[in-house]
Amino acid sequence: MAEQLKIKLSIANRVYPLTIAPSQEEGLRKATKKIEAMISQFEQNYSVRDKQDVLAMCALQFAAQVEQKTIDKEYVNEEVQEKLEALSELLQSHI
Fold first, then answer.
1. pLDDT: is 44 or 21 the higher one?
2. What InterPro entries does the annotation carry (predicted)?
């Protein structure tokens, strides 16, 4: 079994002990920093004091970003497919 690493992450003033693969540590620590920054931003901009509400807003924000990237990727894939088909037709007409 691969070596595991025990770390503690603090989110919204709570500590979460995790056992992870060493390759996951950097991503988890960066994600924790982004979550903490977003929590601060929501608390300052919207005067939200309930941590559960702030965490729900953070979750929604991150989920929306993931969904938007998926939508954007699908759009780009369709656009690339259309251009490849047009290029293929152009090449076929010259052969």
1. 21
2. Cell_div_ZapA-like, Cell_div_ZapA-like_sf
